[in-house]
Amino acid sequence: PFLFRLGGRIESLVLRNIQHHNPTDARSLVDVGWAKSDTHHDTSMTHIRSLVIDGLHIFEADERAADASFINVVAPVDHLVVRNVEVVRPANGSRQGCLIETRAQARIGSLFLSNLCLHGIGCLLHHTANEISTVQLANVLASETGSALIKVGGAEIGTINATGVFGAELLEAPPGSKIGQVKASAA
Predict the structure, then answer these.
(1) By the 8 A CB rule, do 183 and 161 touch?
(2) Of the chain's two ends, which shows fewer C-beta atoms within 10 Å, N or C?
(3) Are strands 123-127 and 98-102 parallel, antiparallel or unpaired?
(4) Contact at 8 Å (CB) between 114 and 130?
(5) For the stretch 136-163, what's the b/e string if a residue is b when 16 or more beta carbons lie within 10 angstroms of its beta carbon?
(6) What is the pLDDT of residues 144-157, one digit of tens each?
(7) How far apart are CA 147 and CA 165, in angstroms?
């Protein structure tokens, strides 16, 4: 099951040292807002000013959670930091799922991603809703990933700044997606 489901108005929240070992299905670990509306929860009332996820370790021995989106954002977040992440999946797996997915009413002001080791995941960010103003990536090591670390489907990203990204293409944005400025460097 999900580990954290965040709702309401939150000024600042830090989640640290989360371990996820051999999940039994593809449910998310963190839901920002409610992924499906119901009579008890109103996603429009959720707004988080600052969310930091520091230390997320995901280990999978099989493909039961292959298409998981570990962090689902379906509500506005002004400042989201995800750092010190390790995703380890089986060798020669299906390369599905993502670390972060945006949907519904999601809007992210600044998304900072640093010190990530990703193995066997479809993408780092699957952005399909509204806008992310700025994406900052630093020190990303990827192996056996999908076609790109950032996949945009009909949504908008204002600026992408990436440094020290290795092992995968940075961006896949089909027609209908709007990408502003992209700056990438190896060092």
Answers:
(1) yes
(2) C
(3) parallel
(4) no
(5) ebeebebebbbebbbbbeebbbeebebe
(6) 998 899 999 999 99
(7) 14
